Amino acid sequence: MFMRNCPNGDKVEWKWLCYSKNTGRIYCFDCKLFSLSRNALSNDGFSDWKHASERISSHEQSQNHIHAVIETAKYSKLEGGIDHTIQQQIEELTSYGQNLVKRLLSVIIFLAERGLALRGDDQVIGSKHNGNYLGILELLSEYNAFLAQHIQTKANKGKGCTSYLSANVCEELITITGEKILEHVINRVKMAKYYSVSVDSSEDYSHTDQLTVIFRYLEGKQPVERFVTFLPSTGHKGEEMANALLKFLNNVGLSIQECRGQSYDNASNMSLILNLNKYAKYIPCFGHSLNLVGKDAANSCSEAVKFFDFIQALYAFFTGSTRRYKKLKDKLDEKNLSVSVPKKLSDTRWSCRADAFIY
Asked: Is residue 9 part of a domain?
């Protein structure tokens, strides 16, 4: 009832029409204010629902309604009116909030790009333990009058005073930024139409297993690779990883039919996606395969195992004491030998073990 159907099929909202829950009737807002003659829509309200569509349509075309609309538009532009003052206050608050959020987002992006922590031990402005986020805002406030005034008037006021400096607001800005970045990347992928995907499980600092999703696509003639998101790991089986990927693609509006490549380390059972799309060629990670070959080959050789155990023992011996480590380093510098000090061996990347003993 609040929409008008145009002859070309478009729908236009009747913004002048309003409904009262108290009376259960509809009214014309403009006629209620400036009508030259009283009628149902401008006086007691209208509730004849059987003939409502016809009545509303005829009312919109009446001269009385047109006059009221013109008068409403004229008075809304006059300065000094209540609505004008309120609108001006809204614009000022909006501008203030936008300027503040721009500064907050700049700090968040700066720290995120460098992989630095945002939070500290407390959320108190002026504290030395309030973290990088609040600390940088304090630093910027020394050279920015707008930010300095905001911190001076809003910070550390407790509940009831909105400062936008709390951890909750910071996390909300991070979430919104992440959603916008994901939306932007997905739109770029949709513009490219075809894409390849790489999924791998990894463990974060909290020892939580998760799946990393990476898209590769073309922008013009240039290949682009983008990290997209982390997915909660539902298991290491190919079927479980495939279902998690398909669910994510469905949520962001991408079709598996437009996938042209897939890589999942050596999880060959992930090739089951080929059953859904024969063009999504499965490509195992040959670097990962070579690493596994090197690891198994070294483990099958008793001499190699003894050698690497000896290298690890040297590392543990010299790094277990700062005094021993300094003596070793001074002796190597004294002999002017191009020999590196012992390094910790990698348990997974066997190619890195060469750095532990090669000159």
From this structure: no
